[in-house]
Please model this.
Amino acid sequence: MSVKYPLLGSQITLGSTTLKNRIVFSAHLTNFARNGCPTDQHLSYYRARARGGTGLIITEELSVHPSDWPYEKLVHAYNDEVRSGFETITREVHNYGAKIFAQINHNGSQGSSSYSKYALLAPSEIPDPLFRENPIAIDESEIRDICIAYGVVAKLAQDSGFDGIELQCSHSSLVRQFLSPLTNRRVDRYGGDLIARSTLLFDILNEIRYRVGSIFTIGIRLCGDEMLAGGINIKDTLELVRLADASMLVDYINTSIGVATASLYAIEASMAITPGYNLYIPSQIRAVTDLPVIASGRIKDPAQAERILRDGQADLVGIVRGQIADPDFAAKSLSDHEDTIRVCLSCNQECVGRMGLNRWLGCIENPNTGREFLKSPRSRPLYSSQRGLYSPTSRQQGTNFKKWQLKVLVIGAGPAGLQAAVSFAETGHKVKVFEEKSTTGGLVSLAANIPTRAELGDLVRNLNREIAAAGIVVTLNTHLDVKDVEAIGADVIVVATGSRPSLPYFLSNFNLTVEGDKLGVCDVVTVLEEGAHPQGKVLVLDDLGFHQGTSVAELLAHRGCTVTIATPQLYVGQDLGVTLDLETWNLRASALSIEQLPETIVTAVDGKTTSLMEHTTGKCYQRYFDWIILANHRVPNDHLAQELLSAGFPRSNVRVIGDALAPRRIHQAIIEAQRLPEEVR
Model:
């Protein structure tokens, strides 16, 4: 029992299933399936979280019917070939004392017929705004077939060792489409008021209960608020919960918010949205039912989770991204070692973002997420309260590391340098780190100074804590040259010196940060470093399509600048759509009167007059700006690496990683640093 978090570590019973704690690894997509079946990737992924101490795992959605195939890598649970995979997964999860439920679903009109070759089924012939495909209104005989399919899959789950099933009625499901007045325009017994619109839900629940019997846990995940005018709201949901409670068919209520189209950004909220933003849903549901209620939505740490339970807002907490980032979240929390958790950033880059790109799930902080099934890559040793924290000498079995200790010099303490230091220390090597600036974290620490990006600082704090735990000394305010490196005498030299700005062709005659009566020019990093103080009319050039341009534009608007942001892409911040940041950015930009110029390039600059062109139409015009801020591609700051090689250091001993190799995003830097000890043979 945790001293700090007694409620979080306490048992609770859902129907016929007793959980050892109240931490839930809720359902989320993984893209691990192959040919419609669960894989070893699923097995290793769920096993790692069960071994990490979670009380309950709820699988990603399992399709109940051949007409439902909205994306390629979906598990087709209606196919009996899935049984052996399910049996292996449930057995492994149970070996670690965790319970596991199967979430079963039909996506209805929220999909595509490209894979299934069947017309989409929906309560009414209303196309989904994201998928834009005409569905057919399901008739009563087809409804009966779907209900039977739910029951058959629930029974298969029971026979395969699952402890219960969860019926998805939330953000992407046929059931929610029947419940919502926006998508259900039927005039038969399945349409009308909420009681009529809930008929399909209770038909399915009755079919499932008939097939699995009374001693099997059944839960429903409800959308508490569609966040759409005329859609499901919390009042509707509370009425539905009362109906579910009275039916005696349901053992617990899980909660969600939004729909997986217009309000998707609220389902998997990024760091721009406050943690616990949707707790009004489980707290109000809990007030009208005695059924256990699960809360979810940016629950980042055990203190927040304990407070939710203590305040009576929920009975359990769904922590997904927190356990994606650190599979040992539960064990560390409940042994009062929460300070060792690699806290999730809610950046959405490699978890949510990869789903939209049809790639399997990953994590910006934890390169092993999704790769647990691979035999060769090194993974961080699991936390165990019996054997303490990570041991610098621990090695994963089967990985061929050097059997002797190397002296490793890491130059640069950004994310790449810090991760490299941790990775080498974990594999038994002696590490020194030098950083020429006064703080660690590099560009990530700078980006964390922007209010909507503050949680990026968790990445640096996580790495600094692991650096300290490994006993690594980081020497700040120290610039190293070739002679310094020679004097240190390291076996391996890791150059992680980051990047430097570059000027685009139309500014090639300018110096960075030219102030006074002339045009001021600098890049976004200079603004964050306070090396320049733009005023007046500011043009931000968004060549990267990510947070660099939009964040600094927002920052300068808050400081009183009149901000215009231009991009050659279809819209400003194009890659923000992948991380579900685009909607909230546009809301904030509108409130700050930030002008956006999509599909626009700069062709020339003459004094403070900037020539612009709409590159799709060829329209040219001129605008007056006091400053131009560049969110453009930087270049490697690799001078030291080149000097070391020129001085005769063996190329095999000089390893360049992160932005010093090629300026990219955080994840690439972390991966390169994490795998570096494997490559030094």
Observations:
- Residues 47 and 92 are 6 Å apart (CA to CA).
- Residues 407-500+636-679 form a domain with the Rossmann fold fold (CATH 3.40.50.720).
- Residues 377-402 have pLDDT under 50 and may be disordered.
